[in-house]
């Protein structure tokens, strides 16, 4: 196990031990054995690729009493796109406790991309709340959506007032979590409310300004 992998393992095991010390009636953290299993598996299947600190997550599986789903999230290096846009690849892996050692982890779904704005020459560290790129979009379009999302949301609240699914939550606080593309081809801003609801705002371009075109909302998950 090379130095980077050993350092990553030490870091995540310290984090896991600290979290495990807290009383948790409904959840648990990834065990040291699960964390070590992932580090070993990743090192053997991704030879030559450095491993940034993985983030482990344990969730209860719906409809399966006592069953937990263990995942590990690995973010690659941040990459400079068109200034001042940054992109970062993300992969999520799922643990199979019954699998053979070499098959104990597998990729859970397609690779993801995170995007954010950073004005320095290098992208630096990932921000606390990066935005997921859910569908491929041109870089300049991504940049404009990120730069104008606050004003787009402000205008979209007027549309929310006339939408039965959105009206009850039009005054909630929202944060941008994703960029998508609708079936009509329009780019979509995906917002999460402060009560875990979701608002999707499709956008049309008018010269250099982006304007909300339609809204759709879903209640707390």
What does this protein look like?
Keywords: Signal. The chain folds into 2 domains: about 5-130, no CATH class; about 135-220, Nuclear Transport Factor 2, Chain: A (Roll). It has about 220 residues and is α+β, with helices and mostly antiparallel strands. The model is unreliable at about 10-25 (pLDDT under 50). Strands 1, 2, 3, 4, 5, 6, 7, 8, 9, 10 and 11 form an 11-stranded mixed β-sheet that branches. Strand 10 and strand 11 (about 210-220) form a beta hairpin. It has helices at about 5-20, 30-45, 140-160; strands at about 55-60, 70-75, 80, 85-95, 105, 110-115, 130-135, 175-180, 185-195, 200-205, 210-220.
Give the count of structural domains. 2
Strand content: 25-35%
Helix content: 10-25%
- Which sheet architecture does the biggest sheet show? 11 strands, mixed
As residue ranges, the low-confidence spans are: 12-25
Roughly how many Å is the radius of gyration?
A: 20 Å
The shape, in one word, is globular
Number of helices: 3
Structural class: alpha+beta
Count of β-strands: 11
Spell out the helices and strands N to C. Answer: HHEEEEEEEHEEEE
Chain-averaged pLDDT: 86
């Amino acid at each position: 196990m090379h130095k980077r992998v050993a350092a990553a393992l030490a870091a995540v095991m310290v984090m896991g031990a600290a979290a495990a010390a807290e009383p948790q009636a409904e959840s648990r953290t990834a065990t040291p054995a699960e964390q070590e299993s992932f580090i070993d598996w990743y090192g053997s299947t991704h030879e030559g690729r450095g491993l940034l600190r993985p983030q482990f997550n344990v969730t209860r599986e719906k409809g399966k009493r006592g069953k937990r789903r263990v995942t590990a999230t690995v973010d690659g290096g941040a990459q400079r796109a068109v200034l001042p846009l940054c992109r970062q690849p993300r992969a999520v892996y799922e643990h199979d406790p019954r699998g053979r050692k070499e098959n104990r982890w597998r990729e859970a779904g397609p690779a993801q991309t995170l995007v954010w704005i950073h004005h320095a020459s290098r992208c630096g560290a990932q921000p606390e709340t990066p935005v997921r790129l859910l569908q491929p979009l041109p870089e300049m379009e991504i940049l404009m959506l990120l730069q104008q999302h606050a004003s787009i949301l402000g205008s979209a609240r007027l549309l929310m007032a006339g939408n039965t699914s959105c009206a009850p939550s039009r005054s909630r606080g929202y944060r941008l979590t994703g960029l998508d593309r609708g079936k009509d081809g329009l780019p979509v801003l995906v917002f999460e409310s402060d009560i875990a609801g979701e608002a999707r705002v499709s956008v049309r371009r008018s010269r250099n300004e982006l304007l909300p075109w339609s809204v759709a909302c879903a209640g707390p998950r």
